[in-house]
Amino acid sequence: MDLRWEENNLLSIREHAYIYLKEMILEGELKAGDRLIERELAGKLNISRTPIREALFRLESQGFVKTVPRKGVVVSNISEHEVIEVFTILASLEVLAVKMAAQRMDPETQSELEQKIKELRALENQAEEDFNLEHIQMNRLINKASKSPKLFDILSGLIDYIHMAANMGYETPGRRKESLREHINIMKALHDKEAELAEYLMRIHIENSKKAYITYIKTIKEKLNKKDKVKST
User: Fold this and answer.
1) In 5-74, which ranges are continuous DSSP H helix?
2) Which pairing describes strands 72-75 and 65-68: parallel, antiparallel, or unpaired?
3) C-alpha to C-alpha distance for 58 and 93, rounded to whole angstroms
4) In the chain, which stretches have pLDDT less than 70?
5) What residues pair up with 75 in beta bridges, in sequence order?
6) pLDDT of res. 164
7) CB atoms < 10 A from the CB of 212, how many?
8) Gyration radius of the chain over CA positions
9) How far, in Å, CA of 168 to CA of 213, rounded?
10) Which of 114, 129, 173, 224 is a good FRET partner for 135, with 20 to 30 A between their CA atoms?
């Protein structure tokens, strides 16, 4: 992970620590049950333990980590039910966002969409890892285009869950590129003010994302079951 700790960086050390740990969790580098030891993390990032402690407290308030007796701070196991619930919510809110975006489209937003579509098309033939973080940027642009600050705030509050679920779903072969193409098509429909098409494409995208996530979870469960059977023999 690319961390920029230069003195002139606008982010504080505590914010760096928070972003670093959260992204490690969202990207799956820190998994459910992994211990987060302040001393080790501080040494790894070459900072004091105070910003690490503050970052962990903040992550705990958001449900990403929890304190377990006699074990310390560990990465939380966000349940499958919680993630499926988020997809259900998105099926309504993100579809509403694209509908409003298409209805409120203006030349400035159209220009932004044109630029993003060009960038995404340039990524289509590159390695999937090259557009791993594009998902959030695409979502933010689409939600911002709705010109509804309240709706944008609500969806922004779910962005971490969306990112985490998307990264899990991306473990399904080909899902990253498929998701990229889906976003391009949604943006094209928005750019052309085709509200019904944009709504339809967004529903399909959310459903495909949910299916990819469920496939990933099913694969993990099958692997765990095989390990348990091997241990019991």
Assistant:
1) 13-26, 38-45, 49-61
2) antiparallel
3) 26
4) 1-11, 127-133, 224, 227-228, 231-233
5) 65
6) 75
7) 23
8) 20
9) 6
10) 224
**pTM summary value:** 0.72
Residue type at 160 in one-letter notation: D
Euclidean distance between CA atoms 103 and 204, whole angstroms: 20
Say how far apart CA 120 and CA 213 lie, in whole Å: 23
Angle at 212 between CA 208 and CA 213, to 5 degrees: 120
Decide if 145 contacts 193 (C-beta within 8 A): no
Residue 71 host element (H or E): none
* Residue in the structure block whose two tokens are 């890892």: 129
> Under 8 Å CB-to-CB from 50, ≥6 apart: which residues?
14
Q: What is the pLDDT of residues 79-123, one digit of tens each?
A: 788 888 989 999 999 999 999 999 999 999 999 999 999 988 888
Q: What is the DSSP letter of 128?
A: G
Written as six digits, the tokens of 204 are 């399909």
> Position 25: which residue type?
I
- Angle CA(135)–CA(136)–CA(142) in degrees, nearest 5? 95
Rounded Cα gap, residues 194 and 105, in angstroms:
10
Q: What is the sign, positive or negative, of the torsion defined by CA atoms of 190, 192, 195, 197?
A: negative
What pLDDT score does 132 carry?
Answer: 58
Burial 106-134, CB ≥16 within 10 A → b, else e: eeebbeebeebbeebeebeeeeeeebeeb
Q: How far apart are CA 179 and CA 193, in angstroms?
A: 21
> What's phi and psi for 104, nearest 5 deg?
-105, 15
How is residue 233 written in tokens?
């023999």
